[in-house]
Amino acid sequence: MAVSLGVLAERYGCKLHGPPDVQVDRVVSLQSGGDGGLSFFTNPALGAALKDTTATAVILAAADVEVCPVAALVAENPYLVFARVAAELHPQPPLQQGVHASAVVADDCTIPESCQMSAGAVIETGVVFGERCYVGPNCVVGRHSVFGADTRLLAGVLVCHEVRMGDRGLVHSGTVLGSDGFGNARDHSGAWTKVPQTGALVIGDDVEIGANCTIDRGAMGDTEIGSGVRLDNLVHVGHNVSIGQHTAVAGQTGFSGSVYIGARCMIGGHAAFAGHITVADDVVITGGSAVAGSIRKPGMYGGPGPPVEEIGKWRKNVVRVRQLDDMARRLRQLERTVERMNK
Questions:
Q1: 237 and 216 both lie in a single domain
Q2: N or C: lower Cβ tally within 10 Å for the chain?
């Protein structure tokens, strides 16, 4: 679909530098460009690419207009505007409404006519879908699960029993929702007895979950994913974890059981969280961090953990690291004392 720059400027609150009747029909990189292509610029490292771009128009900040050789849509938040325009230029394909002949659907499910159940899907008893839901090929949806309107489960998603998901959810292929948490009790001989996981998984509105994630149901009580959360690929969420609204988590991050993560947090890839800790709202965790204790104040935290070693030695080293500031202060005092003695 093609849209004029004048329409986009008015629709998204941009200031247009260039002819309003010029049209764009797709998004492109600065380097690829091309007639009808719309790009964006936010990274100063790509300044040369901006100067040489052949895109029809670029979304950028006011400070960068002078170096842009093509039409510009000036925005306070260029990347956000780009995301919204990209969604308009590249909409999701329309649903093929109905239930595929090879899908297996229990008789007591609620599936509005506006939904699509694809080939090989299995929908167990008591499942409820809102309007315009999409279930991709070979998905399995467990009994008594509930999904809000416009939710999309892409190919090969497994949803276990009694999962509840809000409106406009998007779950990528290979993800498992509502699997049993890691609950086991040990007897005197070392043998394990499984602890039944009797809770549920509750997911809010506008949540996107990447490919090959695993989110466990609660052991007692529920695992909760707040509205607006973004989970990258290969994220593991243990039982009874709570992730606050609009938090974003990069790939290969793992949350042990009963972790509480506040709202609007940003967590880098390959972070690891010990169980039963609390992280405040508006916290940033850098990639590869090992979060072993609660974080009570907003801010940026991080740093990779030390190499694995015998636990007693590791604990002693952690204590010493925490004493470094005090040790450095005492060393400076000692140096000043020695200097005075040598005069």
A1: yes
A2: C
Answer for the pair 294, 276: CB distance below 8 angstroms, yes or no: no
Task: Check the CA dihedral 268-272-274-275 and report its sign.
Answer: positive
State the DSSP string of 205-244: SS-EE-TT-EEEPPSSS-EEE-TT-EE-TT-EE-TT-EE-
Rounded CA separation 190/277 (Å) = 27
Rounded to whole angstroms, the Cα distance separating 110 from 44 reads 51
d(CA 45, CA 80): 19
Residues 128 and 276 in one domain: yes
- What are the catalytic residues? 239
Q: What is the pLDDT of residues 94-145, one digit of tens each?
A: 999 999 999 999 999 999 999 999 999 999 999 999 999 999 999 999 999 9
Q: Which structural domain, as residue segments, surrounds residue 280?
A: 98-301
Structure tokens at 281: 């709202």
CATH number at residue 121: 2.160.10.10
Query: In total, how many domains does the chain have?
Result: 3
Place of tokens 């939710």: 151
Cα–Cα distance, 142 to 165 (Å, whole number) = 13
Tracing tokens 């925490």 back to the chain, one arrives at 322
Of 71, 89, 107, the residue at which a domain comes to its end is 89
Angle between helices 311-322 and 324-342 (to 10 degrees): 60
Residue 38 CB neighbour total at 10 angstroms: 25
Residue 22 shares a structural domain with residue 152: no
Based on the number of CB atoms within 10 Å of its own CB, is 90 exposed (0-12), middle (13-18) or buried (19 or more)?
exposed
Q: Give 329's Cβ-side CA count (13 Å radius).
A: 4
**Same domain for 117 and 83:** no
Domain boundary among 20, 54, 89: 89
Answer yes or no: do 116 and 219 share one domain.
yes
Calpha distance 10→278 (Å, rounded): 43
Pick out the chain residues at pLDDT < 50.
none
**pTM of this structure:** 0.86
